[in-house]
């Protein structure tokens, strides 16, 4: 294992460790100590060209797109195994670079990615890469239709720092199964651990050029998105950057999948088991210190049980261990960057200015000398029109909004520019399903607020375009062809 928490000095291109063409680097700063401890290379246009050329070569002239899905799936299983072998190195590096508590890095960040790779490998036999059907036009009765789903080509995959491996494998899984090749650019705040991922790619025998990894910031990402030899862009990140990428792809008529921000609602109906609902909601609300796209950051409680719900959330949240991300007992650590900390604190202040009441936290904790910590925070008496109920805070915070009846709860849940996830909590499963079906969000649950590899999630409105997870995501990585052939 070559991985350390030291500098990353190379890219992974065409199956080789390749030195950057320039000398530009980006420092990696510890969210817990605020000290720089490593650096990553910032890819320039020559580096992006080399990575895309390697992916292009592997797609146009290599075996990968021409293997059977079953053969590609076998490589993906090996990749999952090799990545899993490196899980401790990946977890500890992620904790060092973006501050995710070590237990969460071990139990969620890495296994979440491994499961997605294995899941997509299982779909080799069930996805219809080729299908035959009868013709319809009378004049074509001597013909039949072959529908082929061929790989779309070279995929540029750009991912954020909060959940770098599950956001990545939602792309790698369907892209590799379909026969695409890829250039991956992680976020500068979570790039160091990609050295271990490159090792896994190599050890698994993924053919050279099929998976290429470069590091860098926004400019490197933009060069990749607009590179003339890229066929498709798959992006996970903020709505703001997603909007910019959508514009670039529109000008190029380039297919793009966007998984963006969220402001997900959890509706606690009157007959909900509040305690178990709150226990599960906090897992996602506090994942990576609340830097979680599907966080149930808006909890909706009926007026009749409002105080009970507020008390349950406050007392459960108070108990969640908070502090040094290297401590295995800690569940909530610091935020990933100083600007993220400042943004979250600005939201806390805005909430108070607009009339929300702080039921827990609301500021910067006094007990830490250094580190980008913010307090776990619960706002009560939140009107859904307030900024804290409309904007993604991306910190360990939730707002609790009262509703009058079920229709009012549905209206409030849907009153958002986002539409990523949501959940309904009730002892009447039929009602729960009926209410969940009316929510305008892509990933929903009844008496759970979870993700599953097999359950598709598609951002409504400003939460994105296209589907990730589930067999449906494979369609984002193929082009559909109809070939009329004699019967
Ligand atoms: P971000 O948008 O700032 O950056 C995401 C990635 O895009 C990074 O790799 C970054 O280097 C790159 N990038 C930045 N500017 C670019 C440009 N102009 N062109 C090309 N690439 C560019 O997001 P972030 O702060 O890293 O992540 C947090 C955001 O991600 C939150 O809004 C969160 O909700 C969202 N997110 C969404 C999902 C989902 O599945 N919907 C999952 C995780 C995170």
UniProtKB/TrEMBL annotation:
A Pfam family that the UniProt record links to this protein: Aldedh
InterPro entries in the cross-refs: Ald_DH/histidinol_DH, Ald_DH_C, Ald_DH_CS_CYS, Ald_DH_CS_GLU, Ald_DH_N, Aldehyde_DH_dom
Protein name according to UniProt: aldehyde dehydrogenase (NAD(+))
Family: Belongs to the aldehyde dehydrogenase family.
Keywords: Oxidoreductase
Record EC number: 1.2.1.3
Domain spans labelled Aldehyde dehydrogenase: 22-481
Catalytic activity as recorded in UniProt: an aldehyde + NAD(+) + H2O = a carboxylate + NADH + 2 H(+)
GO terms for MF: aldehyde dehydrogenase (NAD+) activity
Regions crossing the membrane: none
Active site per the UniProt annotation: 259
């Amino acid at each position: 294992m070559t991985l350390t928490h030291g500098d990353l000095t190379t890219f992974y291109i065409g199956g080789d460790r390749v030195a950057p063409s320039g000398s530009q680097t980006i420092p990696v700063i510890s969210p817990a100590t605020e000290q720089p401890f490593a650096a990553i290379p910032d890819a320039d246009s020559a580096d992006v060209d080399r990575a895309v050329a390697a992916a292009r070569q592997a797609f146009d002239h290599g075996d990968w797109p021409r293997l059977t899905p079953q053969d590609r799936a076998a490589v993906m299983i090996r990749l999952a195994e090799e990545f899993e072998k490196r899980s401790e190195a990946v977890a500890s590096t992620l904790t060092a670079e973006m501050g995710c508590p070590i237990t969460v890095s071990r139990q969620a960040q890495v296994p979440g990615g491994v499961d997605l790779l294995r899941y997509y490998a299982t779909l080799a036999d069930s996805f219809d890469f080729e299908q035959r059907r009868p013709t319809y036009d009378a004049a074509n009765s001597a013909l039949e239709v072959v529908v082929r789903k061929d790989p779309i080509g070279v995929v540029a995959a750009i991912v954020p720092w909060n959940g770098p491996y599950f956001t990545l494998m939602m792309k790698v899984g369907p892209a590799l199964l379909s026969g695409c090749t890829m250039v991956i650019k992680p976020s500068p705040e979570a790039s160091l651990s990609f050295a271990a991922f490159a090792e896994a790619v190599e050890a698994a025998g993924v053919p050279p050029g099929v998976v290429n990894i470069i590091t860098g910031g926004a400019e490197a990402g933009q060069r990749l998105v607009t590179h003339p030899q890229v066929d498709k862009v798959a992006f996970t990140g903020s709505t703001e950057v997603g909007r910019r990428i959508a514009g670039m792809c529109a000008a190029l008529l380039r297919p793009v999948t966007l998984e963006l921000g969220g402001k997900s609602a959890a509706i606690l109906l009157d007959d909900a088991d509040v305690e178990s609902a709150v226990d599960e909601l906090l897992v996602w609300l506090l994942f990576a210190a609340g830097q979680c796209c599907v966080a149930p950051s808006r909890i909706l409680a009926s007026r009749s049980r409002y105080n009970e719900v507020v008390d349950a959330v406050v007392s459960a949240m108070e108990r969640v261990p908070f502090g040094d991300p290297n401590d295995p007992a800690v569940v909530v650590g610091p935020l990933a960057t100083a600007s993220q900390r400042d943004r979250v604190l600005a939201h806390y202040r805005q909430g108070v200015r607009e009339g929300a009441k702080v039921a827990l936290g609301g500021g910067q904790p006094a007990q830490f000398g250094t580190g980008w910590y913010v307090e776990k925070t619960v706002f009560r008496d939140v009107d859904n029109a307030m900024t804290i109920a409309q904007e993604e805070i991306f910190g360990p915070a939730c707002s609790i909004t009262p509703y009058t009846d079920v229709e009012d709860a549905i209206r409030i849940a849907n009153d958002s520019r986002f539409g990523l996830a949501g959940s309904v909590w009730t002892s009447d499963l039929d009602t729960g399903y009926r209410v969940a079906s009316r929510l305008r969000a892509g990933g929903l649950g009844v008496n759970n607020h979870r993700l599953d590899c097999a359950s598709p999630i598609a951002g409504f409105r400003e939460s994105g375009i296209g589907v990730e997870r589930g067999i449906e995501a494979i369609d984002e990585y193929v082009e559909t062809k109809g070939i009329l052939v004699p019967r």
